Here is the input.
Amino acid sequence: MSLDRIRNASLRDKVMSAEQAAEFVKNGMNLAITGFTGAGYPKALPTAIANKAKAAHERGEAFSIGMVTGASTAPECDGVLAEANAVHFRSPFQSDPTLRNNINAGRTAYQDMHLSHVEQQMRQGFYGEFDIAIIEASGITEEGHIIPAMGIGHGVEAIKCAKHVIIEVNAAQNAGLEGMHDIYGEVGLPPHRKPIPLVGSFDRIGTPYIECAADKIVAIVLTNGGDRNSKFADPDDVSIRIAAQIIDFLDHEVKAGRLPKSLLPLQSGVGNVANAVMAGLLDAPFEELTGYTEVLQDGMLDLILAGKMKYASATALSFSPDALQRFNDNIEFLRDKLILRPMEISNNPEIIRRLGIIGMNAMIEADIYGNVNSTHVMGTKMMNGIGGSGDFTRNGFFSFYVSPSTAKGGAISSIVPMVSHHDHTEHDVMFIVTEQGMADLRGKSPKQRAKLIIENCSHPDYRDMLRDYYDRALAVSEKAGGIHTPHILLEALSWHQRFVETGDMRIK
Here is the structure.
């Protein structure tokens, strides 16, 4: 494989196979591994480490690692390591089915946390020492600086914190990525922390590369593999209806003079519904849109290519195969329209509040008072994690949570009396949107919110049940002397229990 991507001649001596590089990884080590929503993760080393773990286990020897990433990776990273039972600790966000099963079975300890907190906690030593950082790059400059690939995540802090660094240089990544990154790594810790000098979503405040001392680099592995380019489902009727309501609301706010016609910078979570919202904006009456998000997917890319969005900032690019082709075909056009930043900047509460981000994220369920669960199924089973949704929810100008009103063929209601796990409280959530309708929760008391959510967002199959619960909760709470947030504690989670026992939340 060509060494052209390694322009620093002295570093070429450190090129070796993935198997050779994996020998640096020992049992019990703590690794920082890049990867953010299927982009920027190492393609070869995880398999080599997994094979090393399997061989050790066959000999009756222990072998596992602690692993902190930017966000989710892919089957050839999280997946192979989980399959080999090689991960005893994982943080902060994941989406791999095998790893998820290991977490829920108790084989892997998992810390879910806000993505904006990860790098600070690495800096403070909360994870312990990092033995090795494994970084995916699209190249290395003449000066020995690292040119990141399609995802940055926590890569800057990983290099700073780790004792040693292994770089995977991936020739499959477009060389045109060089110059698209903006690396600012001077966030620091109190009491010496200074304001981050970013006042516009497309400001450049750093360098186009990550600095790394040459003596830290112990190995370089050459790869040629694509990212986890998952295909998105075409927007269905439910997604289109959800998207239309958000767009209609934003149009109303523009006409009322509370938003400019360019709106405010947009953040969109991952998934088909979020992508449908972006697709809906193509024909919406807004111009010169901007994006300030954590992961940029197909919908936002198409807005830029169509001239509806001027530019966008993210920490990762996660495209379907078709969108990746559009990206590569138009990379010269996109060069001055996309910026990739460390996730400590993309998800920073200070910047999110300053820019006035419009945040749109998915949920598993919401309760009648506006509390949102975005991580746990039936209160106990981890799905993926909170990711950056909390960063944008608490600090954004608007915070939308979207979901179909039912799941599992109608057996689960997304609107429940009380969420089985709290991720985002009623104090932060402004809008709940399902295909049934939207509830604007701003300036509303708990009882006012309950009526809006039940009537506007719940599925007709569950609406009468929710009304009945609320009415009885109001009566019971009044007798107990407190009706600010009416609940029947013995029943508040009975819908989830009924599903666990019968497979259906409905009373039959």
About this structure: Residues 203 and 385 are 30 Å apart (CA to CA). Residues 9-223 form a domain with the Glutaconate Coenzyme A-transferase fold (CATH 3.40.1080.10). The longest strand covers residues 132-140. The longest helix spans residues 460-480.
